[in-house]
Amino acid sequence: MFGTWVPFPSLRSAGDDNEDVGRSETRRDLRTANSYNNPMTETDDKLFAEADTGEYGRFSTGILPSHVLKRLIRARREIVALDDIEESQIQPASVDLRLGAIAWRVRASFLPGPNATVAQKLSSVLMHEIDLTHGAVLETGCVYIVPLIERAEFSARVSGVANPKSSTGRIDVFTRLITDNAPAFDRIEPGYRGPLFAEISPRTFPVLVRKGSRLNQLRVRRGSPQFTDTQLRRLNADTPLVSGEADIDNGLALTIDLKGKPGERIGWRAKRHTGVIDVDRRGVLTPLDYWDPIEAHPSGNIILDPDEFYILASRESVAIPPDYAAEMVPFNPLVGEFRVHYAGFFDPGFGYEHGKPPAARGVLEVRSREVPFILEHGQVIGRLVFERLTDPPPEVYGEGLGSNYQRQGLKLSKHFREA
């Protein structure tokens, strides 16, 4: 094990007897739950045995790759955990985060802000506690807070950014990372030492989760290296990043494919009132039980209905070189009344094969906002921002890692059988 974390005690629901006393106990118990002891036990040397010649690799700043993450975890630095961190959690440039043993149903989403902990805020919005040890269903339209098994022990120049895993975004499970004193979601400030929490809100499908389920992932960054459009153009000249001409302006533009090929579906629209999706089971669900296929319209347009969820694909194929990672930038309201791409991480090696053209399209989770919106073929729907790794990872996306979406076209999440 990498650390000993005092378990979270049982919490009273809002309707318990002795409510005032219960709230006081809850606040005290939550403060206790945030304490952390550092005695460490031996870890599996075989798991994190790779040697490395430098502290962080060829560069002292950038996204930390898998072999550096493994070495730091083995040394009980930057990321520690209540349970042993498994090798399968370590991706080429990120760490999968695991749900803890309980979930708290809350009345509303919240941010602690700079002057409060999650525990302090939680005591005012808590509704009831759910045991995740043997699995539990999280219902649509509800908000849950789940303490994660992993914990940050960041040094002064180390920070983190989180995002839902691709398979989480593709089933419309809104998931965000929260820390104590957080001014923003999905960010871990440099030098933060404390617990991590996931805010989870299924939007379309109810989901079955359990302790150890992995819904979001964390990229760890050292320093704040800048990667300009000029550098991006040079990288694209050396290694083509997209099929066709690259549109580079504050990142690399991706456009939507709404024409496809004759007789080929261009997307999926989620059904309502479906069965439960077990987030840990792969390839077991029939797509048509959960999705309506979308065929191309001769106009090349599609009308997005408010509050409906769509899976669409980029027109371009993408390739991420092994020593870089990319992220889809947050939604820009100037683009239109829709949100694109919950799962914004593109791993090193995604769609990449040396000497060959880009091989994987970006699959996009799209949700319209308050009004119907016409999306047109070829419309820019997002931009990829690239960042250098401190060192190329030994294995990139698709190389023996069980990657689910390498060389993908339009593809549903891993939970579904091939359509």
Descriptive notes:
The radius of gyration is 22 Å and the shape is globular. The protein has helices at residues 19-33, 66-74, 118-125, 166-169, 229-238; strands at residues 4-5, 36-37, 62-63, 78-81, 90-91, 94-98, 102-106, 126-131, 136-138, 143-153, 158-164, 173-179, 187-188, 193-202, 207-209, 214-222, 252-255, 265-270, 277-278, 291-295, 301-304, 309-318, 324-328, 338-340, 345-346, 360-368, 373-376, 380-388. β5 (90-91) and β6 (94-98) form a beta hairpin. The strands form seven sheets. Strands 3, 5, 6, 11, 13 and 16 form a six-stranded antiparallel sheet that branches. Strands 4, 7, 8, 10, 12 and 14 form a six-stranded antiparallel sheet that branches. The protein has a five-stranded antiparallel sheet with strand order 20-18-22-26-24, with no helix packed on it. The chain starts with a strand and ends in a 31-residue tail after the last strand. The model is unreliable at 1-53 (pLDDT under 50). The chain is mainly β and 419 residues long.
Mean pLDDT: 84
Counted by DSSP, the helix tally is 5
Could you tell me how far the N terminus lies from the C terminus, measured between alpha carbons in angstroms? 41 Å
List how many beta strands DSSP finds: 28
Q: Radius of gyration in whole Å, from Cα?
A: 22 Å
Give helix % range. Answer: 10-25%
Uncertain residue segments: 1-53
> How large a portion of the residues is in β-strands, by DSSP E?
25-35%
**Helix vs. strand class:** mainly beta
The major sheet is characterized as: 6 strands, antiparallel
Q: Which overall shape is indicated by the principal axes computed on the Cα atoms?
A: globular
